[in-house]
Design goal:
Blueprint (H helix, E strand, L loop, with lengths): L10 H12 L5 E4 L4 H9 L5 E3 L1 H7 L10 H13 L5 E4 L7 H13 L4 E5 L18 H14 L6 E6 L7 H13 L4 E4 L5 H10 L5 E4 L11 H6 L4 E4 L2 H20 L12 H8 L1 H11 L12
Helix pairs in contact: 4-5, 5-6
Keywords: Lyase, Magnesium, Metal-binding
Cofactor: Mg(2+)
Pathway: Organic acid metabolism; propanoate degradation
């Protein structure tokens, strides 16, 4: 029971598993986790990895995704989530929370948090949600400095540094392709191209950037047509994230239930739609903690002498 409080799979092992998955020919599916408990459910459901969305960290704090969260908040939440899962975890690190020196510190903090990798994007500070209009991207040389600083600060060579480009919706597809190539040359391990629209867009990007793993973002209510993981794999993509899906599902249910309770005064109609307490206890590994407690709890009031 040595893994009750943290995963027995080391951070380096999880990073190596993520890298192996990216080159396996099987697309790596990473649903977003809005909490540590959600990450536990993602692992039990059989996914290859866990994603931590900057938009979700912000939304959980009731903040919009406009660069208001801090490195401390994101790293702290990432550490909590990484602790409870054996899966590799990819974290949204926005623009690196500042200048290139801050991007380097971001990598250091996230390595210490035990995550498998992070992505840095080429938006201006403060960033915007990648599927909204009005984004701005930094000049290529600024992003190259972000990536180079991050790669240079990395201590575990297995830690995955992903470069995200938002240029497709700002400067066009050709710019996004050229940027992706430059980012790969600067040391990025994985390219995340944001806000492509159609399968043809994904196919064109893959053909133009052939020699590096690519990540697709299947977020709802955005600019991208929602494609099945198998379709993305067939198009040559190596990973896919579902960043806000679990939060949206949960909050949709929460709001509906609250409206019902406000109207009727009881939650009775929702009992069958709830996670049962017994299932919650399974996810929490309640019985294992209880067994551990009984094995170490040898103190009794009668035998305790405070002066001994």
């Amino acid at each position: 029971m040595g893994d009750l409080y943290s995963s027995a799979v080391t951070p380096t092992q999880r990073r190596e598993a993520f890298r192996a998955g990216l080159t396996s020919g099987t697309i790596q599916r990473l649903p977003g986790a809005f909490s540590p408990l959600c990450a536990r459910a993602i692992q039990e459901a059989g996914f290859e990895g866990v994603y931590v969305s900057g938009a979700v960290v912000a939304a959980d704090l009731a903040l919009p995704d406009i660069g208001l969260t801090t490195l401390t908040e994101v790293a702290g939440r990432s550490r909590q989530i990484a602790r409870v899962t054996d899966l590799p975890m990819l974290v949204d690190a926005d623009t690196g929370f500042g200048e290139p020196m801050s991007a380097a510190r971001t990598v250091s903090e996230l390595e210490d948090a035990g995550v498998a990798g992070c992505h840095l994007e080429d938006q201006m500070n403060p960033k915007r949600c990648g599927h909204l209009d009005g984004k701005e991207v930094v000049p290529v040389d600024v992003m190259l400095r972000r990536i180079s600083a991050a790669v240079g600060q990395r201590r575990d060579p297995a830690f995955v540094i992903s470069a995200r480009t938002d240029a497709a919706g700002v400067e066009g597809m050709d710019s996004a392709i050229n940027r992706a190539k430059a980012y790969a040359d600067a040391g990025a391990d994985l390219i995340f191209v944001e806000a492509l629209h159609t399968p043809a867009d994904f196919e064109r990007f893959r053909a133009a950037v052939p020699d590096i793993p690519l990540l697709a973002n299947m977020t709802e209510f955005g600019k991208t047509e929602l494609l099945p993981a198998q379709t993305l794999q067939d198009l040559g993509y190596n990973a896919v994230i579902y960043p806000v899906t679990t939060l949206r599902v949960a909050m949709g249910q929460v709001e509906s239930a609250l409206a019902d309770i406000a109207a009727t005064g009881t939650q009775t109609d929702w009992i069958d739609r709830m996670q049962h307490r017994s299932r919650l206890y399974e996810l929490l590994r309640y019985s294992e903690y209880n067994a551990f407690d009984q094995s170490v709890f040898t103190y009794s009031a009668e035998s305790y002498d405070p002066h001994s």
